[in-house]
Amino acid sequence: MKFTAEQIAGILNGTVVGDTNIEVSKLSKIEEGTKGSLTFLSNAKYTPYIYSTQASITIVNNNFEPEKPISTTLIKVEDAYEGFSKLLEYYDRIKTNKSGIEQPCFIHESVNVPDNIYIGAFAYIGNNVKLGDNVKIYPNVYVGDNVVLGDNTILFPGAKVYSDCIIGKNCVINSGSVIGADGFGYAPTKDGGYNKVPQTGNVILEDFVDIGAATTIDRATIGSTIIRSGVKLDNQIQIAHNVEIGKNTVIAAQTGVAGSTKIGEQCVIGGQVGIVGHLVIGNNVKVQAQSGIGRNVKDNEILQGSPSFGYSDWNKSYVYFKNLPKLAKTINELEKKVDGNN
């Protein structure tokens, strides 16, 4: 798919300086630009590359004025980084703009299928599923009975949504993710074994939730596991039964959240964090990577370590952690001196 500089400027409300008819069909870094590619310049340290780049079109800030001759056509916008991001969104929307129903697939006769929908080959759509407008269901997706999929939601190949789960509008569920599998509920028996506790609840994803690849969100034992609007979950995250995650919280890869923990709004949680069950995590909390959270956390706390404690205290303590062998040697030498003087 090709776009001219004039078309791109129209999308971005920008101004072309150079050849308005020059075409691009791919994206590139400015230092790796080749003929037919589009790039951008927003960070001043990359300015030298604009004089050597072979990219056909470069998006720049309105105030950029070249000091030497350039071969690339410029599109001037208010914010080059924001403009390039907008263009990526536009490109991604076109790339994923599939429609129609591929065969073979299974759609239960009870399902009302909107006209503007995409269902890929080998997808399974169960009994009484509710499909919103412009939903896209890629090949090998499983959608269980009584599931609701809101408008503009996308399920990428191999995603699984178990029965009774509710997915809001404008959500993205990436490949291999499982929404609504049984929670880890078992009751110990007198003979030392375990009996499974039925998991009768569901999972609710509100609007604008993104779920990374191979992430699992377990259904509630009773009630709902709830992921609030705007939450972004990375790849390979485990969210246990009856967890609630507040609006616009973001969580990085390989984090695990145990059952019934409540996480607040606008939190930022790093990769490989472990959070035990039945906790309350406040709003605007930041947790550094590989931390272990074993207590309730107040609003605005910043935590690091396992078990975690205050971030600034952790940094101060680390000065001593890394010098422990030296400190131990010094103490031993002092003890010998003291013993020698007695």
Automatic annotation (TrEMBL):
In terms of SUPFAM superfamilies, this protein maps to: Trimeric LpxA-like enzymes
InterPro entries in the cross-refs: Hexapep, LpxD, Trimer_LpxA-like_sf, UDP_GlcNAc_AcTrfase_non-rep
Q: Look up the EC number in the record and give it.
A: 2.3.1.191
GO BP terms: namely:
lipid A biosynthetic process
Task of the protein:
Catalyzes the N-acylation of UDP-3-O-acylglucosamine using 3-hydroxyacyl-ACP as the acyl donor. Is involved in the biosynthesis of lipid A, a phosphorylated glycolipid that anchors the lipopolysaccharide to the outer membrane of the cell.
Q: What is this protein called?
A: UDP-3-O-acylglucosamine N-acyltransferase
Family classification: Belongs to the transferase hexapeptide repeat family. LpxD subfamily.
What is the species of this protein? Winogradskyella endarachnes
Keywords of the record: Acyltransferase, Lipid A biosynthesis, Lipid biosynthesis, Lipid metabolism, Repeat, Transferase
A single GO molecular-function term is:
UDP-3-O-[(3R)-3-hydroxyacyl]-glucosamine N-acyltransferase activity
Spell out the reaction equation it catalyses: a UDP-3-O-[(3R)-3-hydroxyacyl]-alpha-D-glucosamine + a (3R)-hydroxyacyl-[ACP] = a UDP-2-N,3-O-bis[(3R)-3-hydroxyacyl]-alpha-D-glucosamine + holo-[ACP] + H(+)
Recorded hits in HAMAP family, A to Z, give: LpxD
The pathway where this protein functions is: Bacterial outer membrane biogenesis; LPS lipid A biosynthesis
Q: What Pfam families does the record point to?
A: Hexapep (PF00132), LpxD (PF04613)
Residues annotated as the enzyme's active site:
H241 (proton acceptor)
Task: Note the subunit structure.
Answer: Homotrimer.
Residue ranges of the UDP-3-O-[3-hydroxymyristoyl] glucosamine N-acyltransferase non-repeat region domain? 21-89
Q: Name one GO cellular component term.
A: membrane
**Protein encoded by which gene:** lpxD
Q: Kind of enzyme, top EC level?
A: transferase
Q: Which CDD domains match?
A: LbH_LpxD (cd03352)
